[in-house]
Amino acid sequence: MNSVNKTLYIPLYGKALVSSKNIILNDKKAEIIWQNAGFKLKGKSKSKWLAYFMAMRSAIFDKWLTNELALNENAVVVHVGCGLDSRVLRVTSNRKAWYDVDFPSVIDERRKYYSETSNYKMLAVDMKTDKWKELISKDSDVIVCIEGVSMYFEKQELIDLMANLNSHFKSVKLLMDCYTEKGARLSKYKNPVNEVGVTTVYGYDNYNELAEKSGINFVKEHNMTPNEYIEQLSRLERIIFKKLFAGKISKSIYKIYEFNKS
After folding, report:
1. How far is residue 235's CA from residue 245's CA, in Å, rounded to a whole number?
2. Reduced 3-state DSSP string for 161-220
3. Class of residue 186 by CB neighbours under 10 A (exposed 0-12, middle 13-18, buried 19+)
4. pLDDT tens, 147-191?
5. Portion of the chain with pLDDT greater than 90, in percent
6. Quick one: which of 46, 89, 114, 235 has the fewest CB in 10 Å?
């Protein structure tokens, strides 16, 4: 497993930690995998503050996806960069079709903990190519989660990914987190992914450029740290967390953007 793929253990730890504390996310699967994986994190990667932030990010994606599925019960879910995430269990287990997509070495690891069914498939592919989309029907309305992976795509690679989604599927609803360009620059000096060997990440300031060049419309920016999740922390934790992750500096380096194509 290469350095980029090793980063999947950072959010996994965060989800396992908050689930064990009964806050933010109920994710028993993450707890089990973390206990069994035997992967060692160190330094900032194992910070509880980062764990809270990663868990909040996942909760935002879960809530958005749940709302979108309520609007279109026949939509196909595509989770790009799924890692070891158990969103398919947290959100629903009765979808018409759900595809978890990641690099082959990640899916090999994932198959130790998840099994395919008639409506749940794992695609072991190079996410930076357009070939994997041919495995999903072109007639599909898709709801796409791109979580924790856009920062490993150069701008043109990300535009190509979005454009390929646009050209292949009937309609697309997409939620994606990403660094700003400032965030990518700062990550060279202080980023937990450095501790698992990742040295290069990318950021994007112009969401309108991503929309225009991919053909998928920009909808809005989502709040990364909703109060409903911060309020689940202890009083002292709330104060510290807000300084670390909910202030102007944090908001200037990390974003969640929503796009769609009808």
Report:
1. 15
2. HHHHHHHHCCEEEEEEEEECHHHHHHCCCCCHHHHHCCCCCCECCCHHHHHHHHCCEEEE
3. middle
4. 999 988 999 999 999 999 999 999 999 999 999 999 888 876 654
5. 69
6. 235
Determine contact, residues 90/62, Cβ cutoff 8 Å: yes
Q: Which of 110, 65, 123 minimizes the C-alpha distance to 83?
A: 110
CA–CA gap between residue 59 and residue 26 (Å, rounded): 10
Across the beta sheet with 141-146, what order do the strands follow?
Answer: 120-124, 98-102, 76-80, 141-146, 171-179, 254-261, 217-222
Query: Could you give the CA distance from residue 124 to residue 249 in angstroms, rounded to a whole number?
Result: 36
User: How many other CB atoms are there within 10 angstroms of residue 82's CB atom?
Assistant: 26
Residue range 3-261 forms a domain whose CATH class is alpha beta
| CA dist., res. 233 & res. 23, Å (int) | 8
Buried b (16+ CB within 10 A) or exposed e, 154-170: ebeebbbbbbbbbebbe
Q: Are 139 and 115 in contact (CB under 8 A)?
A: no
